[in-house]
Amino acid sequence: MRRFGALLAAGLLAGTLAACGGPATQEMESAQAFAMDTVMVLTAGGGETGTALQTAQGELYRLDRELSRTREDSAVSRLNSAPAGTAEDVGEGLYGLIAQALTFSAATDGAFDITLAPVSSAWGFTEDAYRVPGQEELDALLTHVGADHVHLEGGTSVSLDQGTQIDLGAIAKGYASDVVASIYQENGVAHGTVYLGGNTWVCGGNPEGDPWRIGVQDPARAEEAEAYTGILRMTDGFAVTSGGYQRYFEEDGVTYHHIIDPATGRPAESGLTSVTVVADGTVGNGTMCDALSTALFVMGEERALDFWRSGAYDFDLILVTEDGRLLVTDGIADQFQPDETAGYAYEVVS
Predict the structure, then answer these.
(1) What is the rounded distance in angstroms from the CA atom of residue 115 to the CA atom of residue 156?
(2) How many angstroms separate the CA atoms of 129 and 269, rounded?
């Protein structure tokens, strides 16, 4: 079963679109794109709004063409199909993104891994042809998994070891949100929103001068469009959610979700049902939030909170656990209002 977030997971709550930073009677402009298998919604007010939105749309489609593993003509597909050990020129942007991905992999002890592509395909998540692979098949595929199988050759060239393929699905939308945020800034957009599936970036507050309201999807009620664990209020920042409810299938009464543990090749059994990573609106944090939301889901509650406390990166967390707890780190506790009707035991973590 496949789910496209119904605005939200995290995403923006509907509201009046008037010019941010200006009179409430001045309407904001909006645009949509369908890229990276996701409905993407952009709104902006102030500055060169039309240029910003048009440029952002073009970049989202360009990134889709460049980063998609399922497009035969993409830069990622060309790298994946190149002979083993052959240096492939992937261009400056993709080279930089792969380098960042390898850094996140090292920082999370491999919990984030872009080389899971063949494993994800074995489960059918890439092709929407779901199946449960046998352990022998997974063990064979796992010999090709790991950041050490990806080699930055210098300049803009990358090579892969035999049998290794990459999939940037766990970082691409975060990177795209950074690209759009940069476009907004270059065009003087004072206030706006960028919603790319479970990846949200906001700037400048809402038309009334208050923070934007971002709903965080309740995994237990994922089929309901407006069922939230709570509301996060932000003026300028990123919020990225990863959850097993976003894409999954069932077989013989067992549910298998799409977030694969690189250590086992199987859907992560971490005791978490969703992870939302929150950071300020600095360009670059979208990529970080996207990568960490996946990695921390795999790591589970204890390791995720230890990683947060380590200070390796500057972010906050909203964790939903299988045993019915809602954990929010103290850096954003005053910005988050839990939904008491959701039934979770709410805890602020320090």
Answers:
(1) 19
(2) 22
- Whole-angstrom distance, CA of residue 62 vs CA of residue 71: 12
With a CB cutoff of 8 Å and minimum separation 6, the contacts of 268 are: 244, 257, 259, 260, 261, 297, 298, 300
DSSP secondary structure letters along 199-249: EEEEES--TTSSPEEEEEE-GGGTTSTT-EEEEEEESSEEEEEEETTSBEE
What are the CA-CA distances from residue 13 to residues 2, 6, 90, 128, 253 (Å)? 22, 11, 38, 29, 34
The label of the residue with tokens 């090749």 reads 265
Q: How is residue 93 written in tokens?
A: 């942007």
Model confidence band, residue 246 (pLDDT cutoffs 50, 70, 90): confident
Q: Within its chain, how far is the Cα of 106 from the centroid?
A: 18
Question: What token pair was written down for 251?
Answer: 């077989």
Dihedral sign of CA atoms 8, 118, 179, 58 in order: negative
pLDDT digits (tens, 9 = 90+) for 77-132: 999 999 999 999 999 999 999 999 999 999 999 999 999 999 999 999 988 899 99
In sequence order, the 6+-apart residues with CB closer than 8 A to the CB of 19 are 26, 27, 28, 45, 46, 191, 207
**What gap in Å lies between CA 181 and CA 285, rounded to an integer?**
10
Q: What does the alpha-carbon distance between residue 217 and residue 219 come to, in Å, rounded to a whole number?
A: 6
What H or E segment, with its residue span, contains residue 280? strand 272-280
